[in-house]
Amino acid sequence: xxxxxxxxxxxxxxxxLGIAHxxxxxxxxxxxxxxxxxxxxxxxxxxxxGGSALPALYPVTWPGVSRPYEIVRGYDIPLYVGADxxxxxxxxxxxxxxxxxxxxQAEARGAHIAIISAGGKxxxxxxEKGYLFAEVPRAxxxxxxxxxxxxALLDMLDMAGALVETGGNYKEELASAADYVTKAIDAWLxxxxxxxxxxxxxxxxxxxxxxxxxxxxxxFPAVYKWKIGANENAKxxxxxxxxxxxxxxxxxxxxxxxxxxxxAVVDLRSxxxxxxxxxxxxxxxxxxxxxxxxxxxxxxxGGNILExxxxxxAYGDFVTLYLAFLNGVDPAPxxxxxxxxxxxxx
Length: 346
Known about the structure:
Layout: H1 5-11, H2 16-22, E1 43-47, H3 58-61, E2 69-72, E3 85-91, H4 97-108, E4 112-117, H5 120-129, E5 132-135, H6 146-159, H7 170-185, H8 198-206, E6 210-215, H9 220-232, E7 238-242, H10 250-253, E8 263-269, H11 275-287, E9 296-299, H12 305-326, H13 335-345
């Protein structure tokens, strides 16, 4: 089925595959942010939910954040937030209630505020109060704008002097990595037959099973994106965890009954993870052999950590989009989330 281009087109009316193909261009988007005094920025707090929180994970892997840095996925902010805090509120819609609640608290504490959004109440607040504001280009779904939000976040962290030193070349490094991944995507496009297309092959392998994705700390942002993609694109439940934490609890859960577990396990393995993390993958696979499904090992490609991160993120998009087609669902809409929001306000 996945080699029938007409069939794929029918299953993909909003061209999610095309969006995934073009997404790396977001990494070079110029937000033209004005030079703004963001204060001493002794610590950074990022507030966001779902796909709007996802880009906050990326700088931890690359290039690194040089100040204490916390991601808030909820209504309340840490008690330490104050005048020395750079508080970044991110919501694609601009109307996420948890993020708006966190913003109100940060304002009351006198934090320096920056906003990343495509509109809504967050954009209104930024314009009315003169906050540093990165207006995200319009996308069909928030998760389709993650690379743009990542670029906006990097620009803000750089302005605050909160990025680990990259020699001032982070924009050039982003552009180079984007070019690398865009070329890699050619091997996953729908025109490439299943026999030569690893993304289609993996989608077929995990169809009909609950997906569990594992990775080390450096690849965890991609692991988390695979979880989001399986849940939102394919409407197929998925979980994730990271090694080494996995080996201290969840590891044991695989060791008992039932032996025939209805899961598909995917390991995102990077050669740039800590050597002990790499060995943990190998030992885990050996000790759990026969008591859990054998993992589908994805060897992450790329010559540096940024290329590997972006490659793993993009590959997960294509795998979960093909999984959506196999499941007979349109990957773009998330109708149940919208219904939930309405019920919550009823």
